[in-house]
Amino acid sequence: MHSTVVRPKPATSAEALAHFQRLMAFETDCWDVHYALNHNLQDFVLLDVRSLDTAKKGYIAGATLLPYPTINETTLSSYPDDTVFVVYCAGPHCNATEKAAVKLARLGRAVKKMIGGVTGWIDEGFELISDV
């Protein structure tokens, strides 16, 4: 008898490699974002896509507040077309990140999700600021 862990059968190593490489094209994590922000390696725009009221409780230093309902060609017009956007929201229980990513992709923009959002950021021991 097999556990539910190995049922269904795991993917082959080639399938796993393709899957995880592809996944990393769509996602980054809090640690990598924090490192980039703190080592002058920020080759992306970090977008906090939560509401202003929520962001007032604390956001990531260096992030730009752009609530997902406001994402459109006009609000993005100051960014070059080749800008890479990294989006985050409250955390795994929130889908504002996915909503923002869909809007950005529909507008032809490169986008990655910061997995974990604010919850992940805090779990990593990183600080938020609240001067909005």
Automatic annotation (TrEMBL):
Protein keywords: Transferase
Record bears the keyword Transferase: yes
Keyword Transferase: yes
Ranges of residues in domain Rhodanese: 40-130
GO molecular function: transferase activity
One Pfam family cited in the UniProt record for this chain: Rhodanese
Matches recorded under InterPro entries: GlpE_sulfurtransferase, Rhodanese-like_dom, Rhodanese-like_dom_sf
PANTHER family linked: FAD-DEPENDENT OXIDOREDUCTASE, PYRIDINE NUCLEOTIDE-DISULPHIDE OXIDOREDUCTASE
Protein's name in the database: Rhodanese-related sulfurtransferase
